[in-house]
Predict the structure.
Amino acid sequence: MNRSDELSKGIRTALDLEGGALSASTAQAAAEVLRRADGRRGLGSEHTVVAFAGSTGSGKSSLFNAVSGLEIAEVAVRRPTTSEPIACVWGEGGDDLLDWLEVPESRRTWRESALDGDDEEPLRGLILIDLPDHDSTAYAHREVSDRLIEMVDVVFWVVDPQKYADFTLHNRYLAKMSAAAESTVVVLNQVDRLDAEQKKTTMGHLRSLLEADGMEKAGVAAASAVTREGVPEIRRELVKMIKSREAGQLRIEQELADIAGRIRAELGRPVDDPEKIPQSDMLIGAMNEAIGTSAIAQTVHDDYIRRAYAKTAYPPLAKASRGKADPLGARHGGDREVLLRAAQPELTQPQTARINLAAHEVISGATRRLPTAWKRAAAAAEDQSAARISADLESAVSEVEIAHRQPGWWGVAGFFQWLFFILTIFGVITTAAVAVLAFFFPEILSSTVPNMDLKVLGLVAAAPLVIGIVGSLITSILSAGARRKGADEARAQVESDIDRAVQSAAKDNVFEPVTRLLRKHKETYDGLS
């Protein structure tokens, strides 16, 4: 796809935008440019259409005759102003183009004849048109001239030493044709009336005026229809245009690029990355705060600690903890959905209002550089999101599953806690028994263990107690650390799950509609570059 095709596609995309994205004048101008571009492309590049435009008395028709080598256009007193376009065609064909240009059949001439030999062969494929005077007092003449100036491939503006600086010429035509400067040649005619110094000065002034018009890339030539000065050079320039077969395509591309730039100016510069929404964290934070993510996560944390303590703490302490308040507000063991419902109250109106306010700030910030029509589209998307974002948030969070964690280490820790507790009880019993026997019934103790030192016997009796106490202490310390780690992981997991649900609700109701709008704006803008 060449550049003109890409621009055409981009302009059509812009014209298809809804809601007054473009001003009426720009949309109308763009549609007209597309119509001309499609019409000209459909007629091929076998012919190059060049128009001679100029004011009354500029010698335009005389120069047209000089270049064509025929007395085709009426000049001077016979017809002081050109009223209808006149076409001279080199070679065969061209009727389709002339029909499209609406040049009357009676005003068409085919240039080459047997008398010319090969003299005119380099110009085959040229359609040269003498336009009505652009300053004619007859509106119909000006209308024809203006219409064809926009349709032809190249415009040769013929000016004379008296009126080359005419305000109307520069303000109404040349300055507005700056986009088509490369398809424009300004010819200072009637230079035979100037001496060398005057010619140099006038040409310099003409060039400065063209620069002021933004026509720096326009061609500039000097000619005289009377002395034929500059005519061979004009014909050589025409030959170059014909051989390149690019004049028509170049003019189309210039016109498309110009209207594309006009549309881009109305669209405004797009954001660099439509996927990055400013202040998105603010909305996520407001939604998490409203839905009580921290409260839910803390409840999960506390519930894990309570259940883990009941399974892994020192048995008497574990049993005592069962009488303490349950994080769920009731004795544990019910459906896990109770946990979510207990920690997640329904959104209140103030909470919903805070979410909608945060969404408004996000949407406004993301679209602040867009033109009014696009902001209206963003506002419509905001209205839709405000109506459902809170309900979608509650629904998304209610679907979050909170895992009923009961890791295997709880059973192992509980086993050792009971083992060491039993050892402790057994050690207390044996130590007490040895102490009672030693104090009150030493003879029984001596007869039972006659050869054992009393101290050694005491140590043996106290060994289970020491092992039980130390083992329980170590198991309790290790279990406490594992409980904290597990509770933190459970809290982090539910925070992550709820945050994903919040992100999903924000994406569906705010981020995706805004991103879609920004992406469309950027794609439209980039398609016009």
About this structure: Residues 75-80 have pLDDT under 50 and may be disordered. The radius of gyration is 47 Å.
